[in-house]
Design a protein that fits this description.
Distance between the termini: 25 Å
CATH class: Mainly Alpha
CATH superfamily: MFS general substrate transporter like domains
CATH architecture: Up-down Bundle
Order of helices and strands: HHHHHHHHHHHHHHHHHH
Strand content: under 5%
Helix content: over 70%
Radius of gyration: 21 Å
Structural class: mainly alpha
Length: 440
């Protein structure tokens, strides 16, 4: 175990300092939101069938599984007098993700889009994982719930804009949202271009506007890096799952069912809405693309709700505890996912998104606030990377079984994937009752 700690004195930061250190998440969420709202659409446009979608999406969880623990481990052990500890990873990830965002919408074959998804998700993970540890690095314990709430706010704002971009380009600027068979619409392409610019700009704002605390003992840090070596670091990263504190183990069960539900939603909402609400499965039709654009609006709404709710969650947590706040939020999300089955008017989908947005705000903040309270400062990045296993493992499980379940038991009807997701979200809420949270 590492004996290296960051600066032991952590003064409280003011609002604008927390704003600047979190601003990069605005850009990161441009990448995630464009991916979540449009990748299934891109895959179906390039010829993917419904039961193939989960496997094609496998890139997202696998890259997280491989990259985040490693990035967490090495970002704990990085220090540069100019760039700091986490910021080099922010910058590298932002550059690579921007390249992927420009290339993906120009894919002409399904395999090209799949490769771009691997590149995009890997790059986002390089930027994102150190941002979670950044809050623990920079803020005293009593400000961490607010720090993660600020991240959730920027995640919500970024996702609102990014998710709605294809609809905005079509309805505000007259950019076409339909194209020839096997071609990605111009509205989607221009959305990805703008998203790439936003991603890079926002992350670099944090890089240049925030200064990090140096390690207490630089010589000890250098010695530890030499002793660990590259392969030693890799091994320790993946063995971290066997060294988790008790509260982290309890949170892992909640995370598993939360992220299984989210992955089901991201994969199947476009297919479910276009077929169940709009009544079409022809990905080249105007009606399908109208429905797909509306899914982007729905995703924008739930992220907008998350941005608004983000600052209410710390207030509620002070009254009813963090674990009960998370339970209530997850129940709202489960009910929101269930309700989509009963909807025939596309406008009513926005009501469902309110519940999902409340859950999303809590998923992005409450588990990390509870976790950071019990982690040693010198292992913050390492354990945040290990914690990511319980985001990516459920997604891998979902990728492996959702397509089979739909094809075998539900006649390949996509709406049932959202029902399964709603059940999973409710289970996650109930599991909050087992968490032993050490409140600040």
């Amino acid at each position: 175990m590492s004996n290296i700690s960051i600066s032991s004195q952590k003064p409280k930061l003011n609002f604008w300092q927390i704003w600047n250190m979190s601003f990069g998440f605005l850009g990161i969420q441009f990448g995630f939101a464009l991916q979540n709202a449009n990748v299934s659409r891109i895959f179906e446009t390039l010829g993917a069938s419904k039961d193939e979608l989960p496997i094609l999406w496998l890139a997202a969880p696998v890259t997280g599984l491989l990259i985040q623990p490693i990035i967490g481990y090495y970002s704990d052990r990085t220090w540069h007098k100019k760039w700091g500890r986490r910021r080099p990873f922010f910058a590298i990830g932002a550059f690579l993700a921007t390249v992927a965002l420009f290339l993906m919408p120009n894919s002409t074959q399904l395999w090209m889009a799949v490769i771009m998804l691997w590149l995009l998700d890997a790059s986002i993970n390089v930027s994102m994982e150190p941002f979670r540890a950044f809050v623990g690095d920079m803020l005293p314990n009593e400000q961490r719930t607010s720090g993660f709430a600020m991240q959730s706010f920027f995640i919500g704002i970024g996702a609102v804009v990014a998710s709605a971009l294809p609809w905005m380009f079509t309805n505000w600027f007259g950019v076409s949202n339909i194209s020839a068979d096997g071609m990605i619409p111009d509205s989607v392409r221009w959305s990805f271009y703008l998203g790439g610019i936003a991603y890079f700009s926002a992350v670099m704002w944090t890089v240049f506007k925030t200064e990090e605390y140096p390690p207490d003992d630089l010589e000890a840090l250098k010695k530890e890096n030499t002793e660990a070596g590259i392969f030693g670091g890799l091994i320790e990263s993946f063995l971290g799952i066997f060294k988790m504190p008790k509260t982290m183990v309890q949170l892992s069960f909640v995370q598993f069912f939360s992220w299984f539900a989210l992955f089901a939603m991201w994969i199947y909402t476009t297919s479910a809405v276009t077929s169940h609400v709009y009544g079409t499965e022809d990905s080249s039709s105007a009606l399908y693309n109208e429905g797909a654009d509306w899914v982007g609006i729905c995703f924008a709404i739930y992220n907008g709700i998350a941005a608004l709710v983000a600052f209410l969650l710390p207030v509620l947590a002070k009254k009813i505890t963090r674990r009960m706040t998370h339970l209530v939020a997850l129940f709202c999300g489960g009910i929101g996912m269930f309700s989509i089955y009963f909807i025939t008017d596309p406008n009513m989908l926005l009501v469902s998104m309110v519940g999902i947005g409340i859950a999303w705000a809590s998923i992005l903040s409450m588990p990390y606030a509870m976790l950071s309270s019990i982690l040693p400062a010198n292992k913050m990045g390492y354990y945040m990377g290990v914690f990511n296993f319980f985001i990516v493992i459920p997604q891998i499980v979902a990728a492996g079984i959702l397509g089979v379940l739909l094809k075998t038991f539900f006649g390949n009807v996509s709406i049932y994937a959202l029902i399964i997701g709603g059940i999973s979200m409710i289970i996650a809420g109930l599991l909050c009752l087992i968490i032993e949270d050490k409140e600040a």
